[in-house]
Amino acid sequence: MRTSLFILVVLISGVTAGLIHGAANFVFVEPSLDQAIGIENQHLFASGEEKNTPEFRAEFDSYRYWQKSGQILAGAILGISIGSLFGIVFVLSRNSLPGKSNIIKSLILAGIMWLTIYFIPFLKYPANPPTVGDSDTVVLRSILYLSFIAISGFGAFGFYKIFNKLKTKKIIAVFGYAVFIGIVFFTMPENPDKISAPMELVEHFRTMSVLAVSIYWLSLGLILGSLWNYFKPNNELKSAFN
Fold this sequence. Notes:
Helix content: over 70%
Distance between the termini: 10 Å
Strand content: under 5%
Largest sheet: none
Number of strands: 0
Radius of gyration: 21 Å
Mean pLDDT: 88
Low-confidence stretches: none
Number of helices: 8
């Protein structure tokens, strides 16, 4: 099977959408991070753990510059990894996705994956700025969040298979997933950390985080669908099977 064209489309889509995501994070999320880290530093000064000295400021500014400068690169790496998964799911489900064009199909799949592996888990375990969260619970919080993503993602895949097998009343599969994920949502443990930061800051950070990730999924759907229309890698894949 010749898959080079398919891989090219997936990689270009992933890295481009990832770069857009990194830029969106830099514009929308970083200001909230600066504010949250500023509050965290004030707590360090008040507790005596650190002193507000020129040396501390120079070291801190250097660290934040390094963090911000790596934002775009981190977005590209994340974009490639998620974009690869998206490309595989798209090629496997393209024929069953609604829509007359590959762009519409790609956008619909991006919306489904955004909902099931990002937004629904986000509603249960929303992102918090650095001032929120105990370092002792970081492993537990990571396990809970990743577990919810896995349950939601595999659950969506399972009900998608049911959706395809149903000739009529396909809404049953959609309703089944809604009931399933609702049960999971209310039975999984709550976030163990209390919010001590100003709620206005936390809510703004969460809103900007959702915006940045949503921009990524929208970009990924548009770019992959457009490239798929232009390069038509499905013809390559079909010919490989014939």
